[in-house]
Amino acid sequence: MVSQDVGFDGGKLIHGRKRFLSVDTLGLVLRVFVTAANVGERSGGKRVLKRVNRMGSSVSRLHAIWADGGFDGEPFRRWVMDVCRWIVQVVLRPKQSKGFVLLKKRWVVERTFGWLMSCRRLVRDHELLPETSETLIYLAMIWIMVRRLA
Questions:
Q1: Nearest CA-CA partner of 19 in 1, 27, 31, 10
Q2: Which PANTHER family match (predicted)?
Q3: Are the C-beta atoms of residues 65 and 80 closer than 8 Å to each other?
Q4: If DSSP codes are grouped into helix, strand and coil, which group holds residue 89?
Q5: Domain coordinates of the chain in residue numbers?
Q6: 77: left (phi over 0), alpha (psi -120 to 50) or beta
Q7: Among candidates 43, 89, 82, which has minimal Cα distance to 68?
Q8: Nearest-CA neighbor of 67 among 48, 53, 54?
Q9: How far apart are CA 110 and CA 6, in angstroms?
Q10: DSSP result, 30-79
Q11: Axis-axis angle for helices 130-149, 107-116 (nearest 10)
Q12: What is the DSSP annotation of 11-33?
């Protein structure tokens, strides 16, 4: 059985689903949104930021959001400022650089994705519902945090 929440992103050549993560400066997951791969970056970003915004007072100190180039664009920035009252700073790699470049603010999310990939069930997405994938990401993050406390 194939879920209706599976798509294809021609830009990234991804078949399946995309994971949108919102993390704090330590790399701990705030909110997750899993959707079909054919959903655009900005629309998925809006959905995950709506979830973060609903957290209320627990994110009251949040003022700026660092995002990659897929979230660039004046309509998206304006939406975040109007709805969430946050500032979006798009972190782009330098145009003159070739190969891998460490982006100081972007590596926090990439490191979190790396931590999550230590959980075998998250390496491949075989879940029927995107909500199940989201729940497994939250459980994996709980496991990672508990392991650090031990």
A1: 31
A2: PHP DOMAIN PROTEIN, TRANSPOSASE
A3: yes
A4: strand
A5: 7-58+100-149
A6: alpha
A7: 89
A8: 48
A9: 23
A10: EEEEEEETTS-HHHHHHHHHHHHHTTGGGGTT--EEEE-GGG-SHHHHHH
A11: 90
A12: TTTEEEEEEEEEE-TT--EEEEE
Residue type, 120: R
pLDDT digits (tens, 9 = 90+) for 55-64: 999 998 999 9
| Per-residue exposure over 97-111, b if at least 16 CB sit within 10 Å of its own CB, e if not | eeeeeeeeebebbee
In the numeric block, which tokens belong to residue 80? 């975040």
The tokens describing 92, both together, are 């782009």
In angstroms and rounded to an integer, the radius of gyration of the C-alpha atoms of the chain is 16
Q: Please list the residues that pair with 8 across neighbouring strands.
A: 15
**pLDDT tens for each residue of 19-65:** 899 999 899 999 999 998 888 889 999 999 999 999 999 998 999 99
> Rounded distance, CA 108 to CA 137, Å?
16
Which are the contacts of 48, defined by CB distance < 8 A and separation ≥ 6? 20, 21, 22, 31, 32, 33
